[in-house]
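Morning - adenosine-5'-triphosphate inputs below, output right after.
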Amino acid sequence: MEVFLQQLVNGITLGGVYALVALGYTMVYGIIQLINFAHGEIFAAGGYMGVILISWMVAQGYPPFVCLGVALALAMGYCALLAMAVEKLVYKPLRSSSRLSVLLSALGMSIFLQNGLMLTQGVYDRAYPGEMVQGGFEIGGAMVSYMQVVIVGVTVFLLVALNGLVFRTRIGKAMRATAQDKTMSALVGINASRIISLTFAIGAALACAAGIMVGMYYGSVRYDMGFVLGVKAFSAAVLGGIGNITGAMLGGLVIGIIEVFAAGYISSEYKDVFAFIILIAVLYFRPTGIMGENVDDTRV
Amino acid sequence: MGAPILELRHVSAAYGRIKAIKDISLVVHPGEVVSIIGANGAGKSTTLMSICGVLPISGGEVYYDGRRIDGLAADLLPSQGLCQVPEGRRIFPRLTVEENLDMGAFFRRDKAAIEHDKNRVFQLFPILLERRRQHGGTLSGGEQQMLAMGRALMSRPRLLLLDEPSLGLAPLIVQQIFRIIREINEVDGVTVVLVEQNANLALQASTRGYVLETGSVILQDEARALLANPDIRKAYLGE
Ligand SMILES: Nc1ncnc2c1ncn2[C@@H]1O[C@H](COP(=O)(O)OP(=O)(O)OP(=O)(O)O)[C@@H](O)[C@H]1O
Ligand SMILES: [Mg+2]
């Protein structure tokens, strides 16, 4: 029971992070039907920007929560700009080309960004400052570290904020309208290019936050960490029904929890495999994802 | 009559290699209701899409309110008062009825006035008020047409382009839609361009009409004259 609870806590922590990254895949897919392979690299770039900013600020002696808050805000802004630049320079010129061309450019962009990270940051792990958030508490035999509390707190905050943005605000409605019918959205005065750009920015900002939290959780980042996590988050998006925002959140949580349980009860060596097994199973048995076609109200 | 609100001069447009409209010239004056009638595939919808900048034109010029608008991005026109209800209504299926209306006012920032206009739309179409939280895609065809009209009105148009507003609707609903077209024209002074299969209905509601055949204007006249024209009666009014 204690082990179970412990796994659940760990699974939720990890799953929330997957959800944050999955949202970027699902939102971009919803609006331009592109699987943005470079999204995982934005996540990694965010992790690096985080470690650079946090290390510097910790060295200046700022309190941990100031470091984290400021680093999150700045790094998210940086990643949003990076993703907007990628979209403008690489994807936008191909807007009227075949989907395959854009897909291949995304793949190329992923390789380019990953190598860029390797060349500028090196091939070795880069450690997050250890003294950031320490300690924890116990409930029902499960250890919950304050770091986990911070991670889950930030994740929940971002997920709620995103939901509010997409489903309550004027811009969020315009995003959904653009995803549903670009001609009609132009006819009501919505500039699709701007909305697409914004969608990339939001997805990147969320992935960046996830990168920082993964860095803090595991204690380090690496230039190629976006690859495996990217595929897992993509699996989460597919599991939730690609294009579906609530689905991506649920999918992320499910993948995170399954991964942790499978690692605990089956084999930790193969923990990365389970997400892919789920991906294949979903594509085989239920390609529309768990949210399916009939609960499609939260598709963008 | 004063300056036209809309003028097309020798406009042509194509889908790839398929020339859909050729050398179309047309003038609409403020306050008018002008119909464009013609058989399936005559180029009526293409003409409206060309005016709105959705389909780039390959020749000619489009003037709105005295300014040349061909080449402008489509999304810049609604805020100028040029608004289209396209063929097939194109309701945003997974936005609620109310959100669809909000999108009609997307470029507007005058919150109180938007709220006022929304209430007016709900007065014109009470069924939309009842269905306001329902997804647009779940409405019936007639309700969707009402929503499309309502969404257009939310932009406070000065020139409204309507593409087959009666398509697939029961006679009673058609009457209601046309009553509202007349009302917004007469009361709010909105100029209307009406594309219709139902030429009889359209011409009766119009001041003037253009007849399109295989992408070109073959005839233009006062609506009454067109209604009395034996050739038109034979070709388009089913006699
Ligand atoms: N997206 C498209 N791609 C290629 N050809 C098109 C496209 N849309 C229309 N066309 C062609 O352009 C011509 C004019 O079509 P348009 O839709 O303007 O006709 P219409 O007068 O509106 O007809 P209807 O009364 O059936 O709506 C037709 O020959 C049609 O086949
Ligand atoms: Mg048509």
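Note: The mean pLDDT of chain A is 92.

O.
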